[in-house]
Design a protein that fits this description.
Blueprint: E1 8-17, E2 26-32, E3 40-48, H1 50-71, H2 79-98, E4 106-107, E5 109-114, E6 119-125, E7 129-134, E8 137-141, H3 147-153, H4 159-163, E9 184-189, E10 195-199, H5 201-204, H6 209-218, H7 221-236, E11 243-252, E12 262-264
Helix pairs in contact: 1-2, 6-7
Protein name: Putative Serine/threonine protein phosphatase
InterPro entries: PPM-type-like_dom_sf, PPM-type_phosphatase-like_dom
Domain PPM-type phosphatase: 9-250
Amino acid sequence: MTPPRPRLQLQAATGIHRGDRQYQQDRIEIFTHPRVAGLMLAVVADGMGGRSGGRMAADQVILTSRQLFDRFVPSQEEPLSLLQSIVRESHLMIKLSAISAEQEPHSTVACVLLQPDGHCHWAHVGDSRVHVFRAGRLLVRTKDHSYVQELVDAGTLSETMARNHPMSNVLTSSLGTAEDPPFVSDSMPLKAGDVVLLCSDGLWHYFVDTELGSALDRLEPRESCEFLIAKARQRAVGRGDNLSLAVLKLGRSEARAAAAPHGTRP
């Protein structure tokens, strides 16, 4: 008989900062399932469309994610279906909200569903990213829906050049636009010591993957959030965007329940 897979303990933290903008349009949340111990959903949304429009779009992503996750029944539904519903319904609700809004609200989304046994599923739209690190080494990084990413894919621009390109903020897809967004998802089993990072472009823009991996490997989630925000703010030199991140770090445990997430808001 195959022995049961040991439960993985989770340490989690979130961080958010307004940067040098007048208002905050990022939203980041980690939800625990109301009926299934150890089942968690992390979501980051980077709103666009003016002061109220962008925040409204990001708020709608978070609200839709919470409602769908609360109704999710793992024994009857596939994780892929939940993530697809989050993308599709958030997109629809933002479009409906735009009817009564002066601005044109849009948002990115990156979401991660983490199961009690450590299996991880994710989806994203836009340039908010999901990363998976093991022992400080990058295993997975989502590919942005952006103009510069298309240039990188075509071989006409390097990753380094793309980071500082004058059109680096131009997206080819987001939630709330006229065109339906693509649904891009993947999954993998995680091991003790693995770290999942979700973040908006206001954070990842200031780091290479090796820097992120090193910080996440040597620091606990709360400390890594504080460190990465402080370093991003320093490197922005007064021109920083809104930034947000969630860090999920796994460790081996026989405990029945995962640790509750903590938030940090510098």
